[in-house]
Design goal:
By secondary structure, the chain is of the alpha+beta class. The protein is built from five helices and three strands, in the order αβαααββα. It has one domain. It is globular and about 40 Å long.
């Protein structure tokens, strides 16, 4: 695997995963899809857009928002459900930390 896919994945984690949490549910195939950018410009815009999106989502996040559920869906069925705040911590932040220095 070339570095374009994993680096774009790491750059897009904050925006994508905060959006998933905000929407309240995500299909498994969307969660595991990793886009390959076509250019340096697309990569840089993706990173900037990701940071802008996570700021937008988290600025409106309240304790109530964090307590609402997020669900992972496969073939129309729920795989698991956790509070949005936990989803952000486990699937967004821990995932992001895990990738630091992976490549």
């Amino acid at each position: 695997m070339s570095l374009d896919v994993p680096t774009f994945h790491v750059a897009s984690i904050p925006g994508n995963y905060s959006s998933f949490a905000d929407e309240g549910k995500t299909k498994l195939e969307v969660l595991v899809h990793h886009h390959a950018p076509n250019s340096k410009k697309e990569f840089m815009e993706g990173f900037s857009g990701s940071i802008a999106k996570v700021k937008q989502v988290l600025e409106k996040a309240t304790d109530h928002w964090a307590s609402l559920n997020w669900e992972l869906i496969k073939d129309g069925n729920g795989i698991f459900t956790i509070p949005r705040g936990m989803m952000c911590r486990l699937l967004m932040m821990n995932h992001w930390y895990d990738h630091r220095g992976s490549w």
